[in-house]
Design a protein that fits this description.
With 691 residues, the protein is mostly beta strands. The chain is built from six helices and 39 strands.
């Protein structure tokens, strides 16, 4: 399977290389001697000279922001290696991704779970958390300008869930030509077929765009054979897939008006996903099976209006997001392939979340002080048979403000606070204090040392599920707790960077330290065989990260190493380490072979990690995850005056599918199970037309 897939991709690509190579090498030599190619200036650490907006009072360059912010540029996103957000973030050193083939990938950020990470698209929250996590594989990466990752809390600016960090996906909004059309086709040997078309019309100050995308994945198990095109399958044991078949349909329409003193953007977005979980044939005759189907619908509308006047700006954001997930179980006759819905309410479920959000931000400047005042109103509701009374809602009113004080052009101080009223729970006052100090005296020319520090209070509001879940049947007895308190966290962060920016190269090294202490952590626990949610846990994480990047007109090299400790919430009288540490590191590079040919590589080592818990007989149980490595490669070629871009490459080159999770204690024998990591080594090709 793998060899034939590789041969197919190499034959597809190789015919384009030889005929143009000599000509392009000569042209590249001329351009290289004439100027410094700046579009290679990307990194998984801070990107020098990149403008950022997430959590900022105004647009600033990353090196001048008071927060530690990573930027992933469109050059990386469009390399062909990443078809959704989960595949991209898996190579970030402070992020760990765990896969669930039904609920989707779950992430942790700096040792904190995904329910403490805010996911935004153009500043608007993505809703629809299942078990506390957003399915980030549902986030489309086409037409993305960049992704900004803020390390540490942004609870003052964004409210709940932004306790560990924030990931903001910024879409492309400006195009040079009156007509722009982009067609993408993607194929991967595991059985992925993605197609995308984007159209944009721009005239004077007005622009209209529409994007349609369909992704199809035929599913995968270890014994699957290679097929270039999807094929029908027999109704035998091979119908069950370890990685479930998926189909996704995405459409987004957008209108933008851009004048000197006003920008208006209106959009409408639709998403549909179908996951098919075919069951194994049932004994004794193997002529029937139970099949599950999971249908997810997302519907988003929004409007973003910005007014400008000198050093004064007002921005209003309005968004309506709807999320609906339906699970149905069918009994299927494998002799005639007819199916009927199972009459068991425990096997059927419909969950719906709605969010209505309105935010107004006012920015102004007085002497050396920038200040921001904002009002944020959010209403969320949930419907479903497993929600108490069938319907519940909560409304959140917030007033927040930030000041940014510039002292002697070297020191920036940024205090902020957020006041919250919520109709369902008691919300804490949220303060924060950040500082940035830049120093260059006594250093070589074009060099500087940057010091950042922050204290921020973060919080996570109880979800509607945690407050009002009612799931009681013959197999379940889980009831929400309307008296829950919000999780409160204290985050301390300190980082220092050494930056050199020369005409022909750029260098950046950074050392970061962080500490998180979360109180009132919400956990699911049982009392007399009844499960509910309680504020009983405390959780801490601490870590150290070292980043280094170097780029010139030929290549860009980046590496990062992190050492993160996670708290063991067990009684102090027991003998066990208070923190479990894991070591991760990554290496990525880009090489400009010539102006139209680029090689990209991403490598990440995920170190072994352990955790301690109490067994039913009060024994300490340690679970240990194996270490593993991931390596992806991509080769990108531009043709026809850069109107045609072809990418080929390989993913998961080390062919990792599962890792072992070993559990042991002093009394019982060792037990082991596995966790899915990937579907093995695959090869891909993508073709992008820009007309």
């Amino acid at each position: 399977m793998k060899k034939r897939g590789a041969i197919y991709l190499l034959v597809l690509f190789s015919s384009f290389l030889y005929s143009q190579n000599n000509k392009e090498q000569n042209q590249f030599k001329i351009e290289r001697e004439a100027n410094f190619i700046t579009d290679t200036n990307w990194t998984w650490s801070d990107v020098l000279n990149e403008v950022i907006i997430t959590g900022q009072l105004k647009e600033v360059r990353a090196e001048n922001a008071v927060h530690d912010i990573k930027i992933i540029t469109s050059e990386i996103i469009e390399s062909g290696l990443f078809s959704d957000l989960s595949q991209l973030l898996i190579f970030d050193n402070n992020i760990k991704i765990s896969n669930d083939n039904i609920l989707g990938p779950a992430l942790s950020f700096q040792g904190l779970s995904g329910q403490n990470v805010k996911i935004l698209i153009d500043g608007v929250s993505v809703i629809g958390r299942l078990n506390g996590n957003i399915d980030i594989s549902q986030v489309n990466l086409n037409n993305i300008e960049r992704i900004e990752i803020v390390e540490g809390p942004l609870s003052v600016d964004l409210g709940s869930d932004a306790l560990a960090g924030t990931i903001n996906i910024i879409t492309k909004k400006k195009f040079k030509d009156s007509w722009t059309s982009i067609i993408n086709n993607y194929y991967e040997t595991v059985g992925k077929y993605n197609n995308d078309i984007f159209l944009n019309y721009q005239r004077n100050n007005h622009s209209f765009s529409n994007q349609f995308r369909r992704d199809f994945f035929s599913g995968w198990s270890e014994d699957d054979s290679f097929n270039l095109l999807p094929t029908s399958q027999l109704a035998d044991a091979k119908r069950f897939k370890k990685w479930k078949p998926k189909e996704k349909i995405y459409n987004k329409s957008q209108y933008r008006l851009e004048k000197e003193k006003i920008h208006i953007r209106n959009y409408a977005e639709y998403f549909y996903e179908k996951i098919t979980n075919r069951g194994l044939p049932r004994e004794p005759y193997f002529n029937s099976a139970f099949d599950d189907y999971y249908h997810t619908y997302r519907l988003n509308f929004g409007s973003d209006i910005e007014f400008f006047k000198d050093e004064y700006k007002i921005q209003s954001l309005f968004a309506y997001n709807k999320y609906k997930r339906i699970k149905n179980t069918f009994y299927k006759d494998l002799t005639n392939l007819q199916q009927v819905l199972v009459e068991d309410n425990a096997l059927q479920d419909t969950t719906q979340f709605n969010m209505l959000m309105f935010k107004v931000l006012s920015y102004s400047q007085y002497n050396n002080i920038d200040y921001q005042i904002g009002v944020n109103i959010t209403n969320q509701d949930s419907k479903g048979d497993r929600i108490k009374s069938g319907y519940q809602y909560q409304t959140d009113y917030a007033l927040f403000s930030n000041l940014e004080i510039n002292i002697f052009d070297r020191l920036k101080l940024r205090p902020g606070f957020r006041i919250i009223y919520n109709n369902k729970y008691s919300a804490p006052l949220i303060p924060s204090l950040n500082f940035l100090y830049q120093y260059d005296e006594g250093l070589q020319k074009d060099a500087a040392i940057t010091l950042r520090g922050s204290y921020a209070k973060g919080f996570r509001a109880p979800s509607l599920k945690e407050l009002f879940l009612y799931f009681v049947d013959i197999n379940h007895n889980i009831i929400g707790n309307p008296d829950l308190l919000a999780e409160k966290g204290d985050n301390f962060r300190l980082s220092t960077s050494y930056i050199i920016k020369k005409q022909d190269y750029k260098y950046n090294s950074k050392l970061s330290l962080f500490y998180n202490d979360i109180k009132n952590k919400i956990s699911l626990n049982s009392i007399n065989d009844e499960y509910s949610y309680f504020n009983i846990d405390r959780y801490k994480t601490l870590g150290l990260t070292v980043d280094m990047s170097l780029s010139n007109n030929i290549f860009s090299f980046n590496t990062s190493t992190s050492y993160i400790g996670r708290y063991n919430d067990l009684p102090s009288t027991l003998s066990h380490p208070k923190f479990n540490y894991s070591l991760d590191y990554n290496i990525s590079f880009l090489i400009n072979i010539n102006p139209t040919l680029k090689l990209l590589s991403f490598y990440k080592y995920n170190g072994s990690s352990s955790a301690f818990s109490m067994s039913e007989d009060n024994q300490i149980v340690e679970s240990m995850n194996d270490a593993y490595s991931l390596l992806d490669l991509s080769l990108s070629k531009k043709l026809i005056s850069n109107k045609l871009i072809i990418n080929i490459g390989a993913k998961n080159i080390f062919n990792v599918t599962d890792i072992n999770i070993l559990q042991n204690n002093a009394v019982h024998s060792n037990s082991s199970n596995t966790m899915s990591v990937g579907y093995g080594r695959t090869f891909f090709s993508s073709i992008k037309f820009m007309l």
